[in-house]
Each structure stands twice: as C-alpha cells, then as structure tokens.
C-alpha cells in the first residue's frame, strides 16, 4: 500500500530513470544493442527495484503511463546516442502484458518513433511468453502491425514458462532471449551442451536470433559461443548503467 501510494505520483515527480545494459555480438564482441531497464528513486522510499514495483504497477494499471514514458525516454535517448556514436545501436524495451493489451499500443509505438526520430529497426520490444499467448489471435494481428512498422520483436525470459513452442510459428518473432536459468542449472552448473545447442539450432532454423542473458563468467561465454548463440548480455560484459556512464564505457571499449 505504501508502495502504491508512492508509485502514483512518481512519474509526475520525475522519479524514474533508465539504465542501459549493453548487448554484445558474440562473434565480433561489438556492442550491438542496449536493454533499457527502469529505475525508481522514490522521494519517500529511496531506491526501489523493479522486482518490487513492476508487479504493483501492472496490477494497478500504472504500468501503462509508466511504460509509455519508458518507451519515449528510451527511443529519444537512443536516437541521440546513435547520433553521438555515429553508428546504429538497437534499444530493447520491456513491455508488460497490460501495455500490449491496450487498444492504442501500436499507434503509440508509431507516434513515439515519429516524435523521437529513432529508426524503427533500432527499436526492439521484449515481450514475455505469457503476454504473447494471452490472446493469440489479437496478439498475432498486433505483432504483424508492429513488424510492418519495422520494429523487432523479442521473447524475453525464454525457457522459464511452460507455453510450448507453437506460438513461435504463429507470431512474427525475431529474437529469443534465453533466460539465465536456461544455461545455468539451480546448482550453478552449466546445462548440458546438447540441450542448449539443440535450442539454438532450432531457433536458427526458424530464422530467430538467440540472445543469452545473465552471462557472468568466461566459461559461460565460451559455452554459448560453442553453442552458436548470436548475442550475449550480462555482468561479464557490463552491468546496467546510467546513460552517461554507458557512454563513457562505450567510448573506452572502442
Ligand atoms: O532491472 P532489473 O534487473 O532489476 O529488472 C528486474 C525485472 O524488471 C526484469 O524482469 C525486467 O524485465 C523488469 N523491468 C525492468 N525495466 C522494465 C520496464 O521498463 N518495463 C517493464 N514492464 N519491466 C521492466
Ligand atoms: O526479465 P529481464 O530479462 O527483462 O530482466 C533482466 C534482469 O537481469 C535485470 O534485472 C538485470 O539487471 C539482470 N541482469 C543483467 N545481467 C545479469 C547477470 O549477468 N546476472 C544476473 N544475475 N542478472 C543480470
Ligand atoms: Mn528483458
Ligand atoms: Na529475461
């Protein structure tokens, strides 16, 4: 309750900020993308992690205006970053089921791209399996419209649900983001190679590219390289950072 009371005025009080975590091409080790991750510094509660407030934002519907702000901020900041860096960089934005269920979501994405000037191909939307299968017919129509705009579509936390794979045939998905638990077992050991490799091969056969999340060690990086994974993201490369720190990091890395 205290959290919800503090969350309601947070947007108007400019208490949100985006941090960005680099995503790296596993073959060239160049940064090809960034994931925008929401941070809340509450005047009343101090720093609150998304794990604590995203659920409440979803239940209360506050995720809709907050998500709109995230999309606009991520697109605007990335557009300016691309200008300064002089090369294309993709930004991925997490989208909740609740946002996807909004009637005007596609228009909102189209408007934000027009307002910020970010090329559509530089925007990726991360959707969870549960959001995708909630209302398949409607979702499929919507994702087709987003695809026509040129936006990239990713399945986030892939391998954590039990939704099967049929939806991958019906929906115009471009990217699978393998959850950390897909590669690391509960005891911290790396999963069976053949298991991970088979999934990567299947994804490639379906023309999907594969991003592994939560890469923390060189062992895991080499394992993913051997499994033919396309991109990696994790503390081994970099933590999520505020924009200015990210730019300094990018300048140092190249
Ligand atoms: O940033 P962190 O590593 O703590 O993220 C925790 C969770 O919060 C992740 O599941 C992530 O997808 C989610 N999250 C972070 N930022 C956003 C956002 O802008 N929108 C939504 N819907 N979820 C987010
Ligand atoms: O659910 P989603 O994939 O959107 O959330 C990404 C979350 O993973 C963020 O909370 C981010 O801070 C976290 N994260 C990013 N890199 C790593 C990592 O190497 N290890 C772990 N444990 N978490 C990570
Ligand atoms: Mn994500
Ligand atoms: Na994830």
Automatic annotation (TrEMBL):
Residues 1-254 form the EAL domain. This is EAL domain-containing protein. The chain holds residues 664 to 917 of 919 of the full protein.
């Amino acid at each position: 309750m205290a959290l919800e009371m503090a969350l309601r005025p947070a947007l108007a009080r400019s208490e949100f900020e985006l941090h960005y975590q680099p995503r790296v091409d596993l073959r060239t080790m160049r940064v090809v993308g960034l994931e925008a991750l929401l941070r809340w510094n509450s005047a009343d509660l101090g720093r609150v992690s998304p794990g604590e407030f995203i659920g409440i934002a979803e239940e209360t519907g506050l995720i809709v205006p907050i998500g709109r702000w995230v999309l606009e901020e991520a697109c605007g900041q990335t557009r300016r970053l691309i200008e300064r860096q002089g090369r294309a960089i993709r930004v991925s934005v997490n989208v909740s089921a609740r946002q996807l269920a909004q009637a005007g979501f596609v228009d909102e994405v189209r408007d934000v791209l027009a307002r910020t000037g970010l090329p559509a191909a530089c925007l990726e939307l991360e959707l969870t399996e549960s959001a995708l299968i909630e209302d398949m017919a409607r979702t499929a129509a919507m994702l087709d419209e987003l695809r026509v705009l040129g936006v990239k579509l990713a399945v986030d936390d892939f391998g954590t649900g039990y939704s099967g794979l049929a939806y991958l045939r019906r929906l115009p998905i471009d990217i699978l983001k393998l959850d950390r638990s897909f590669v690391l077992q509960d005891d911290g050991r790396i999963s069976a190679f053949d298991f991970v490799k088979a999934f990567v091969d299947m994804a490639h056969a379906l023309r999907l590219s594969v991003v592994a999340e939560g890469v923390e060690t060189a062992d895991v990086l080499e394992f993913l390289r051997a499994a033919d994974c396309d991109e990696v993201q994790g503390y081994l490369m970099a933590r999520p950072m505020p924009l200015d720190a990210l730019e300094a990091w990018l300048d140092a890395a190249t």
